[in-house]
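In the design runs reported in the main text, the only information available to the sequence generator was the tokenized backbone. The following block is the verbatim input for one such run; it is reproduced so that readers can re-run the procedure and compare outputs position by position.
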């Protein structure tokens, strides 16, 4: 299988299968504007093609489907005061919505690392497959950002407060956890991947799934559900931390440490985004909210600082500004949700038509 990275998305038509393979394996298939436009264009074409019975989205290489957006490029664009990141998100979010309402079954293989933007192009699909190698998460708060690409939609609708826990800590989950949270559907042993791709080209989708998927192992996250639900039901990050600190569970103390490591601004805005997303009617309206939050986050120092500390310099000692939760005002949190005027993303209107 080719890993020629001059082609960022390999497009194949085999039998009645349309196959889109992300192809930047050295960058763990990190998404670019070009990639999401290629995906969107082919999905648009195939939506009215009666010879395409199923679409499959996979990633090249052994490390994962997709580690998210190209955050190094985002940091450079932000430092230069450019508009490339806004254009990227304006292209990416409609593709997330398109996958969610696609008329033909979309199968996504959430094998290996699936972070951030990788969740956006996989977890909204109609058939989401995980493997024993799946490592899925929205670790945005650790880089001074807030879950986007429909992440706050998915996490706000997960059972209890499991999604809140993962969003605030930036922790990853297993494939079994993803099924429990509603981000995935079936468990596929990784040694059946080749068979899956081959059979999807010729066989009935449901018959293929019945043949290659197996019952998922027990989800590790569920054993912590009791303290997660009680601690994260609080209305503020400060109270959530107080409850975690007071817990007798070691996992709760680890969660508190993770939250304290993350950007105070991002953590507070993430909690607000999740609570607001719960009250919004559909994915499109949540994506519109996330677009506002994302662009406002781009104007703040923590996003660039988080990328510097975690990805560029890799010193893992971000200097957040402000440095404490107490310094992040309600007004500052609310400012992340302020309307964008002519820059607003308009998806709900298009979905209604």
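Verbatim output:
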């Amino acid at each position: 299988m080719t890993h020629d990275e001059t082609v960022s998305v390999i497009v194949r038509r085999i039998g009645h299968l349309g196959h889109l393979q992300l192809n930047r394996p050295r960058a763990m298939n990190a998404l670019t504007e070009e990639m999401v436009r290629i995906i969107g264009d082919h999905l648009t074409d195939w939506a009215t093609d009666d010879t395409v019975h199923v679409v499959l989205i996979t990633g090249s290489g052994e490390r994962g489907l997709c580690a998210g957006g190209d955050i190094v490029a985002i940091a450079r664009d932000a430092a230069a005061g450019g508009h490339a990141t806004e254009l990227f998100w304006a292209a990416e979010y409609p593709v997330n919505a398109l996958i969610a309402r696609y008329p033909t079954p979309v199968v996504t293989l959430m094998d290996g690392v699936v972070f951030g933007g990788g969740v956006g192009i996989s977890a909204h699909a109609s058939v989401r497959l995980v493997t024993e190698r799946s490592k899925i998460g929205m670790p945005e708060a650790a880089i001074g950002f807030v879950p986007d690409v429909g992440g706050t939609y998915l996490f706000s609708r997960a059972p209890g407060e499991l999604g809140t826990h993962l969003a605030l800590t930036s922790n990853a989950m297993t494939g079994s956890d993803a099924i429990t949270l509603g981000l995935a559907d079936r468990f596929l042993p990784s040694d059946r991947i080749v068979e899956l791709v081959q059979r999807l080209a010729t066989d009935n989708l449901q018959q293929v799934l019945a043949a290659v998927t197996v019952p998922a192992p027990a989800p590790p996250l569920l054993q912590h559900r009791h303290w997660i639900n009680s601690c994260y039901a609080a209305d503020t990050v400060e109270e959530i931390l107080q409850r975690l600190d007071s817990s007798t569970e070691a996992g709760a103390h680890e969660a508190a440490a993770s939250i304290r490591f993350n950007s105070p601004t991002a953590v507070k805005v993430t909690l607000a985004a999740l609570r607001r997303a719960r009250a919004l009617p559909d994915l499109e309206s949540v994506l519109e909210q996330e677009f506002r939050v994302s662009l406002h986050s781009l104007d703040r120092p923590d996003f660039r600082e988080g990328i510097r500390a975690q990805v560029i310099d890799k010193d893992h000692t971000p200097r957040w500004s402000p440095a404490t939760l107490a310094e992040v005002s309600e007004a500052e949190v609310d400012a992340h949700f302020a309307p964008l005027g002519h820059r607003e993303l308009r998806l709900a209107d298009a979905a209604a038509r």
